[in-house]
């Protein structure tokens, strides 16, 4: 197995003075070749830059966020390295991994699968929260420890919140756009968790933000959540951000700052409109 | 034939308070159904908003600019309607219209073809400079006259410059990213002009920015041109922006403001970095 920290540059485009790069490496967790995006701002200081990890939604690759959100302007302004991984293992050729848009390829749901068919490759939780950190440290922060926050969209908003809640003290802050907030109570989540984790719903709770908020015991934290009110998936009860607020009412360590945005939908046009505010939020925490 | 001014809304996404809409209509000039993008900023005033037309490059549709450039933030800030048409007729099923990426579909080159095979449909010059203006007037400015400027990228930078230079007093200002500046002297241009206009090179000069600059007799004008210095098409001599400066030296009515950008390439990462400056440039002229 090739060392996951050995990365190959696939493409590099100068953008807002920094570089938007795409890399490829061999993932040990996922047992396949993976691509990820890294925006490296232009910075004169030799100080270790903070890192912000973006997790994308269903059907996305490492490309969507970097091509459509316009985040690079704010990553450069705040001098933050931004890492955007793919949303699932790729090319593993597991039967049924390409038939549905909401399960298998492009739909890893940021869990470590336990069902035997998926358990070897579908380990996105460990990929994001362990392996990727080592890759970042060895390649982008000169081997030094770094401050890191995490955010994402839809399935990736779910991924960001569970990553934060399950790892107190690891991430400085978390935010989400239109997250799947309570996957154990929506169709997307039930379907994916059944497939990856089996039918025991008790196990699912380890990957459900609302359950994790109730039992969170880390430092006081605010979770910034942006939600468009014309989002069809909100109307279909796939997202349920209000459940985050209900869950947080039993735990004073967590405050949900839910911003309801009149007229906005689930698209990158919504994300691009409010991405600047998310960078301001994370920059404040990453520089504390 | 359906009235070209009758437009159907294909999609609508709220973005930076305004709406990024896609419309479809029947073009009389092109004899086919065409899509175009229109960003309508949120504005309380009933004053007629100014309009900025964006022309895209080879292989693009009406989607690339609206999804990747991040322009909506600046269109909203300056309260400018932005119209981004497709780059060629579509679905006309002319033999050879889909075999090459630099000729036929996605490569209309903003000329009115005279070669018989293409002359019926490939009339992008008249589509942009006549028909589209009527569509805008009837649908977006309440039937009132409006101020309009034009800009574009690569093939669309060429299209923007020739549109401006051939129509003194029609456009308030023009700018371009990495334009094909002297098509009669590069491979892309020679190939396209031979195909659409025939072999008489004298005819080509009517669609060549450098030739048009020499004979321009309109109001004094500055053309803003952004060019990445790591642009592979610059290195392959497809763009030749320096020829604009040489051409302008014989005509004091035209000033070329060529901004060479170290390290930037031909992509939308380059465009997104400098799009704000182009909006500032056009806003100044549209509000004079």
TrEMBL record, chains A, B:
Enzyme class per UniProt: hydrolase
Coiled-coil intervals, chain numbering: none
Domain of life: Eukaryota
Keyword field contains Flavoprotein: no
Protein EC: 3.1.2.12
GO MF entries: carboxylic ester hydrolase activity; S-formylglutathione hydrolase activity
Gene Ontology CC: cytosol
Residue numbers annotated as active site: 154, 231, 266
Keywords carried by this UniProt record: Cytoplasm, Hydrolase, Serine esterase
InterPro entries: AB_hydrolase_fold, Esterase-like, S-formylglutathione_hydrol
Localisation: Cytoplasm
Swiss-Prot/TrEMBL catalytic activity: S-formylglutathione + H2O = formate + glutathione + H(+)
Biological process according to GO: formaldehyde catabolic process
Cytoplasm found in the keyword field: yes
Job of this protein: Serine hydrolase involved in the detoxification of formaldehyde.
Record family assignment: Belongs to the esterase D family.
Protein name: S-formylglutathione hydrolase
């Amino acid at each position: 197995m090739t060392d996951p920290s050995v990365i190959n540059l696939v493409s590099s485009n100068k953008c807002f003075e920094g570089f938007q790069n795409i890399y490829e490496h061999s993932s040990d967790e996922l047992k396949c070749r993976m691509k990820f995006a890294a925006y490296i701002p232009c910075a004169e200081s030799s100080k270790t830059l903070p890192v912000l990890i973006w997790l994308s939604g269903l059907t996305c690759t490492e490309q969507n966020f970097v091509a459509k959100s316009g985040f690079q302007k704010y990553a450069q302004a705040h001098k933050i390295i931004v890492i955007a991984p793919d949303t699932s293992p790729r090319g593993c050729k597991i039967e049924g991994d390409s038939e549905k848009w909401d399960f298998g390829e492009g739909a890893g749901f940021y869990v470590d699968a336990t069902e035997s068919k998926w358990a070897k490759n579908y380990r996105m939780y460990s990929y994001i929260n362990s392996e990727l950190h080592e890759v970042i440290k060895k390649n982008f922060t000169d081997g030094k420890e770094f401050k890191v926050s995490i955010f994402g969209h839809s399935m990736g908003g779910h991924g960001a919140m569970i990553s934060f809640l399950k790892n107190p003290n690891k991430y400085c802050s978390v935010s989400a756009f239109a997250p799947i907030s309570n996957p154990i109570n929506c169709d997307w989540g039930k379907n994916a968790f059944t497939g990856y984790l089996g039918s025991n719903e008790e196990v699912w709770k380890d990957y459900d933000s609302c359950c994790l908020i109730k039992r969170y015991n880390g430092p006081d934290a605010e979770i910034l959540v942006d939600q468009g009110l014309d989002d069809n998936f909100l109307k279909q009860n796939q997202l349920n951000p209000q459940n985050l607020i209900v869950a947080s009412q039993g735990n004073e360590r967590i405050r949900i700052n839910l911003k309801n945005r009149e007229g906005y939908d689930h698209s990158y046009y919504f994300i691009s409109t409010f991405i600047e505010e998310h960078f301001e939020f994370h920059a404040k925490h990453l520089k504390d």
